[in-house]
UniProtKB/TrEMBL annotation:
The gene is LOC103550149. The keyword Cell membrane applies. Residues 41-287 form the G-protein coupled receptors family 1 profile domain. It is found in: Cell membrane. It comes from Equus przewalskii. SUPFAM superfamilies: Family A G protein-coupled receptor-like. The keyword Iron does not apply. InterPro entries: GPCR_Rhodpsn, GPCR_Rhodpsn_7TM, Olfact_rcpt. Keywords: Cell membrane, G-protein coupled receptor, Membrane, Olfaction, Receptor, Sensory transduction, Transducer, Transmembrane, Transmembrane helix. Putative odorant or sperm cell receptor. It is a multi-pass membrane protein. The chain crosses the membrane at residues 30-51, 102-120, 203-225, 237-258, 270-289. It comes from the Eukaryota. This is Olfactory receptor 10D4.
């Protein structure tokens, strides 16, 4: 309550993408299509994992978690985005803006940590196959998943507190599709150096984790090359390449937005669209269409009798 008494701003105005006046209908169809594709694709992955006993393994447990977060991640901003593209109000309340910042970074950071956990799972499966069931037992998977949630919640809570403890007394125009640190923090009417330093440091730690994750894949590739069976090598490379593709699509925009020295208002608006709306819709395509087990599980669920046809 004390934080609210220090600010005269009760709502923010989302300005959206620059240089897109008159394209609202086109953008609405574009964003709606990707949002629906995200929901449908990730729900299908969850369906396949839940109904197929063959997919009740650590890898698919983490993939199911990723699908859940890929459903919620674009949902933080997409509904509000759809409303103002339809000509509704562009305003968002002070509390709504703070909620967007929190959930955007909570869900985004959770996905970052989840990618790291998934990399460790692949490392254990490929580099230590005989000990895999011991290393990645049910308790370990549960603890690692809860750890990603708790760590991300702490990360997002600290950032949101630091950003919104500053007074906001105008202007209130957010030059973006939704509220985020780079576009909200400059509107504060006080020194924001601490918040800038903490946000830069936190994102830097996550990026360093990504770098170490990629280094882990060096060991994985070496182990894959030692597999005698060509079919075994192909399946291992297929799984790891899908994971690496998702990592690059997710971390690329994050590094570009938060860690580059210069700022470009247009790019600061466009790049988050890739990270927040488009990338979550691609993960089902990357994982499901390249994964024979997931495709078979979906066919069994959606086409009655397919299991009796040997498909």
């Amino acid at each position: 309550m004390k934080m609210r008494n220090h600010t005269a701003v009760t709502e923010f105005l989302l300005m959206g993408l620059s240089h897109t006046k008159g394209l609202e209908n086109v953008l609405f169809v574009f964003f709606l299509a990707f949002y629906l594709l995200t929901l449908l694709g990730n729900l299908l992955i969850l369906l396949a994992i839940l109904i197929s006993s063959n997919l009740h393994t650590p890898m698919y447990f983490f993939l199911g978690n990723l699908a859940v977060f890929d459903i919620f991640f674009p949902s933080v901003s997409s509904p509000k985005l759809m409303f103002y593209l339809m000509g509704q109000s562009r305003t968002i309340s002070y509390q709504g803006c703070a909620s967007q910042v929190f959930f955007y970074h909570f869900l985004g950071c959770t996905e970052c940590f989840l990618y790291t956990v998934m990399a460790y799972d692949r490392f254990a499966a490929i580099c230590h196959p005989l000990r895999y069931t011991v290393i990645m037992n049910h308790s370990v998977c549960t603890i690692m998943t809860l750890g990603t949630w708790m760590g991300s919640c702490l990360h997002a809570s600290v950032l949101t507190f630091l950003i919104f403890k500053s007074p906001y007394c105008g202007p209130n125009e957010v030059g973006h599709l939704f509220c985020d640190i780079p576009v909200v923090l400059p509107l504060a009417c006080a020194d924001t150096s601490l918040a800038q330093t903490v946000s830069f440091t936190n994102v830097g730690v996550v990026s360093l984790t990504c770098f170490l994750l990629i280094l882990t894949y060096t060991c994985i590739v070496i182990s894959i090359l030692k597999i005698s069976s060509s079919e075994g090598r192909r399946r291992a490379f297929s799984t790891c390449s899908a994971h690496l593709t998702s990592i690059l699509l997710f971390y690329g925009p994050v590094v570009f937005i938060y860690l580059r020295p210069a700022s470009s208002p247009w790019l600061d608006s466009v790049v988050p669209v890739l990270n927040n709306i488009i990338t979550p819709s691609l993960n089902p395509l990357i994982y499901a269409l390249r994964n024979r087990d997931v495709k078979l599980a979906l066919r069994k669920a959606l086409i009655p009798g397919v299991h009796s046809c040997g498909a």
